[in-house]
Amino acid sequence: MKHFISGFAKLKIVSILAFLFCVSQTSYSQTWVKKVDGFSMWSIAKDYAGNIYAGTSGSARGIFKSTDGGDTWTNVFSTGTSNYLYIACDSLNNVYVANVSNGLIYSTDGGQNFTTIPTSAFGGHNINSVACGKNGHIFAGATSGGIWRSTDYGATFTNTGLSAYSIVEIKVDKFNSDIIYAGSSSTSANGFFISTDGGATFGNATLSTNVWEILQTSTDIIYAVTTSSPYPFNKSTDGGMTWTVTGNQTGAMRGGTLDLADNIYLAGNGGVFKSTDGGASFSNHNLTFSSNEMLTYNNKIMVCVSGTANGGVWIYTDSTIIPVELSAFTAVSNNGKIELNWTTVSELNNSGFEIQRGNDGIDFDKIGFVPGFGTTAEKHFYSFVDDNTVNGRYFYRLKQIDFDGSYKYSNVIETKSFRELSYSLEQNYPNPFNPGTIIKFQLPQDGFVSLKVYDILGNEITTLVNEEKPKGSYEVKFDAGSLANGVYIYKIQAGDFVSSEKMILLK
Description:
CATH topology of the domain at 323-417: Immunoglobulin-like
Helix content: under 10%
Largest sheet: 9 strands, antiparallel
């Protein structure tokens, strides 16, 4: 990986992740390399820092971690009591593992220590699957126990429905984290289910086959993977409401992933199979061992293989992907400003990069756009400064957009903004406004704060803050829905500091 940083030698680099955007090429090599040799593997997932976790099944059990893209692995947790069927990571890089009869285990320190949430927290049901949403939302799928939701990072769980179903798959929608998908598998209660309220409730099944894996493309197509004969491969273009069968899988499939070009990979009985035509047909991808969960990491495809003879994490580096390649993507913090830098080695039909920012690693908003260089084999350097931050954690990603409107997302990087505090009162935003606006201020020390709004004649309209405040950065919402158009003044007093600004209400 090449790390490009220009003119910021004194700045603290808080996050570096390389990533690839992709286009297809016709010739390739299909070579798999086995890692974690001698262990029967079942589950695999990646956190936001790029660490990869894999869980075993069978007699030799444990959780393994890789910090170098899967090249080397370390056993971070071992027990002989249960299988590790599913792994998920939240935006804080906490790790959650579905541990079947042991319930749910989780780590808040990168896998150094794990804590058990017993099955009693889930009504006595075994836990088969887990997913992480925004703002501490954790979802656990239970055997004949439906879905259990936590809104406090796993401190407490509540059943939110589907109690007659065994939930083996849960996915949070890529584009709207309030939408949750669930798949069930049992002898009599199968289906695909949708929640549109963050997992608080789920609707009726929109698909009647069992669903072991849910895949969502960059263009919002959803695929449902099954273990039920005759193994139909189902596709939805309307968020899972209706389905069409695009073709048949070659057999029972338990895992799947999409590469950077949205080609489909399925894993199960008979090995790994690939489709380049949206699931109309599948062909074996040079691996024939019984396989389970899969993961895409840049242009690597990883699969968990069962058994001790052939078991392990097998990795295929896809040379069919010739990328709009970024050799570095960095976030640099400097007194409240975040500078993003990235470097492309090559570009093809690249219109440019939409810069997106979020607070939880799940939901993102556009904050800027940087034009690309079209098609070029030369190296190019890009940068973007985000100066609209307060002290805290931020997540960034790039949306690379082609001239035809197609796009790919980068990996997510995380950074912290720190601004040296001084007394300040910022201009409200937006301004002019209708009817709401935000007022920001900073305090370098603890003290009593008064923030009031006046009309242009000096008459007091309302008091926004009137209390002791510890030092820090603050923002206050002001709703002028009941006021008339005009100019208003807001004034802060904190100790000897007094400042005021004008704002315009324009309905």
